[in-house]
Amino acid sequence: MNSLHEPDRTMRPRVLIVLHGELSTPGRVAIQLRNRNIPLDVRRPRFGDDLPKTLDEHTGAVIFGGPQSANDDDEIVKREIDWIGVALKEKKPYLGICLGAQMLAKHLGARVYKHPDGHAEVGYYPIRPTAEGRAVCKDWPDHVYQWHREGFDLPDRASMLAEGDSFPVQAFSYGGTAYALQFHMDVTHATMCRWTTRGHERMTLPNAKPRETHFEGRLMHDLACRAWLSEFIDHWLKAPAAAKATKGKESPPRISPPKPARANGGGGQRRAVSRVSTR
Q: What is the pTM of this model?
């Protein structure tokens, strides 16, 4: 088990961090958690790490992006999607970012799909928070950083938090404790440099932004994105208390049957040496 911090009795229980690249890092999410004296339990299932059978000894779990697809016929991907049920059942805070968001949508029976015109979102794109989104965070950035070519539908009984253009569902919550973000609030400047270098071919996809606009956008939008992430993490960590307060008012979770998904190229078992997420 790879942990950035060993358990410390003076700290809150660790947050499980699930990464999909051999060299991937949890970026700004890790910074925010460490600022709150919360240690991390970092695991890479694709490279041999097991996922815990329970989150009794964890504060919550975050599944990050990666080169795989939630639609891949891949045992490790399927295992992670199934594992999300542990966090939902135990009502522990769950956060899915990009691929991790698509995995949550897939677990809940929603469609994960490619854009019909082949559009990708690579760079900064506008989003629009809903009233439910404003209840989670009062102030939202008007543009967020994206690096994906698949999106997802809104699962049954989930709450839409933010909308977009090419991919309408940009963020949702489910059951009071689970959150899905299609966009990357976790990205650091160093990560952006790596992605736009190693993944430069992504910027030739339809609707993708040229490399220079990524850094121009960062100058304009990053301050608001950082402030949003800090407020969101505070809200996310309080989620179990809010869910407990509403317990008994909702019907038990029911997983809907999957909707048909468009065929797509899978990541399969390839060993991802870079941190570039392509979904």
A: 0.84
